[in-house]
């Protein structure tokens, strides 16, 4: 949300390195690093004339249940205290808000798990500089339309954009467009599981309709073929409408199989269709575990950033996630860095030492399986891209 002095420092450091001839530095080569922090030697050259915007993106943020109890004991800033500075440094900070924030409504019959965070918890998002959150997920309607609409107004009152939900389907499909440093960045958000009827006694789906509040659907439950899926086609239509209006298109997708390290086949096909339609970055979440990254044409796909703030301390896998930091430019995602995240007692921390090495290793291996190869530099996985993405 703030002007990011770190990036200025990086540019200055990199320029100095170039001037003293310490770095062999092809100007057109974009480099993607997966490491604990941005390696200043990896920044590309032509950003001196092209405008850029820095983005920080994280996965699932759930401020209810046990996280709520930690907040009661330690204050609203508690879950994000260790990462707030890093998040707020980015020009734009994004995450998936997995819990409604409000007091009203009643439990949606048949759901089985219901989240609803206290209104004061919104201040933890403000404190961390969140600019946009997706509300398109399978918990947004846990307390029905009442708490969902409260969530939207609580976010709005705190100057945080919500995307992927609204008072009706038209609103839910509306993009959020943020203009920074002369660049227009467009966000869209969708969720799987939006078409499920949870209880036949109360057949309310999570997806919005023409006259009912809800979220924007990503794909039909049980989808196998993206090209015949009506919801996928709707998402593609929204992307096609947005592409001419902005410089960079980011689509948030709440999708995939829970506790699974690999994306499903149809997700990869869906991602390729989106990128073919002009999407630059896909930010995925929902499986409660990180997944690999993939490069397709000019786009970057983060299938799942995993948990960010959650109380699933029952396994190492659900306590690990990723923070994606990207430099956006008129060509799309120019560089990207992953910071490994570890959640301890419902508090997100940037992992260090052996924990960082383990998470980086998993990310590198999973990405390699998706065709994205990492080289190792100074015990850190670093990915070099041969060609810079060209905006279609
Ligand atoms: Zn979910």
Q: Which ligands appear in the coordinates?
A: zinc ion
Can you give the mean pLDDT? Answer: 86
Low-confidence stretches at least 5 residues in length (pLDDT < 50)? 3-47, 384-392
Structural class: alpha/beta
State the domain count.
1
**Relative helix content:** 10-25%
Shape: globular
Report the count of strand segments.
19
The CATH superfamily turns out to be Metallo-dependent phosphatases
How many helices?
9
Tell me the CATH architecture.
Answer: 4-Layer Sandwich
Describe the biggest sheet?
11 strands, mixed
Order of helices and strands: HEEHHEHEHEEHEEEHEHEEEEEEEHEE
From the N-terminal CA to the C-terminal CA, the straight-line distance is 28 Å
Please report which band the strand proportion falls in: under 5%, 5-15%, 15-25%, 25-35%, 35-45% or over 45%. Answer: 25-35%
Q: How many whole angstroms does the radius of gyration measure?
A: 20 Å
CATH topology: Purple Acid Phosphatase, chain A, domain 2
The level 1 CATH classification is Alpha Beta
Structure description:
With 392 residues, the chain is α/β, with parallel strands linked by helices. It has one domain: 4-Layer Sandwich (Purple Acid Phosphatase, chain A, domain 2), CATH 3.60.21. Helix content is 25%, strand content 26%. It has helices at residues 5-19, 65-74, 84-89, 122-127, 144-157, 169-172, 230-242, 265-276, 353-369, and strands at residues 31-34, 53-61, 92-97, 132-134, 161-163, 165-166, 176-180, 183-191, 214-215, 248-254, 281-285, 293-296, 299-302, 307-309, 320-329, 332-344, 347-350, 375-377, 380-384. Strands 1, 2, 3, 4, 5, 14, 15, 16, 17, 18 and 19 form an 11-stranded mixed beta sheet that branches. Strand 12 (293-296) and strand 13 form a beta hairpin. The longest helix has 17 residues, at 353-369. The chain is globular. Residues 3-47 and 384-392 have low confidence and may be disordered. Bound molecules: zinc ion. Zinc ion (ZN) binds next to loops.
């Amino acid at each position: 949300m703030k002007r990011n002095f770190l990036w200025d420092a990086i540019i200055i450091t990199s320029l100095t390195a170039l001037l003293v001839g310490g770095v062999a530095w092809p100007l057109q080569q974009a480099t993607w690093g997966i490491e604990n922090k941005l390696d200043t030697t990896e920044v590309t050259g032509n950003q001196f004339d092209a405008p850029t915007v820095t983005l920080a993106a994280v996965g699932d943020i759930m401020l209810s249940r046990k996280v709520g109890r930690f907040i009661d004991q330690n204050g609203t800033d508690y879950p994000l205290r260790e990462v707030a500075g890093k998040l707020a440094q980015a020009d734009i900070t994004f995450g998936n808000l997995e819990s409604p924030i409000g007091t009203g409504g009643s439990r949606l019959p048949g759901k089985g798990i219901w989240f609803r965070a206290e209104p004061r918890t919104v201040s933890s998002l403000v404190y961390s500089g969140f600019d946009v959150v997706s509300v398109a997920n399978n918990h947004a309607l846990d307390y029905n339309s009442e708490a969902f609409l409260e969530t939207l107004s609580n976010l709005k009152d705190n100057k945080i954009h919500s995307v992927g939900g609204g008072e009706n389907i038209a609103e839910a499909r509306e993009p959020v467009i943020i203009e920074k440093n002369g660049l227009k960045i467009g966000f869209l958000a969708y969720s799987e599981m939006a078409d499920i009827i949870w209880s036949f006694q109360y057949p309310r789906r999570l997806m919005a309709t023409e006259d009912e509040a809800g979220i924007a659907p990503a794909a039909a439950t049980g989808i196998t073929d993206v090209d015949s899926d009506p919801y996928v086609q709707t998402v593609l239509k929204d992307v096609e409408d947005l592409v001419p209006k902005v410089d960079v298109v980011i689509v948030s997708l709440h999708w995939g199989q829970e506790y699974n390290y690999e994306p499903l086949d149809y997700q990869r096909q869906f991602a390729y269709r989106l990128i073919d339609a002009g999407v630059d970055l896909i930010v995925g979440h929902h499986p409660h575990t990180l997944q690999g990254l993939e490069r397709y044409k000019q786009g970057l796909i983060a299938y799942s950033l995993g948990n960010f703030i959650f109380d699933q301390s029952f396994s190492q896998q659900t306590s690990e996630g990723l923070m994606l930091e990207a430099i956006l430019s008129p060509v799309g995602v120019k560089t990207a860095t992953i910071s490994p995240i570890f959640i301890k007692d419902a508090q997100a921390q940037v992992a260090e030492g052996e924990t960082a090495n383990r998470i980086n290793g998993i990310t590198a291996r999973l990405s390699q399986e998706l065709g994205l190869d990492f080289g190792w530099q100074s015990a850190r996985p670093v990915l070099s891209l041969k060609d810079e993405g060209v905006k279609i």
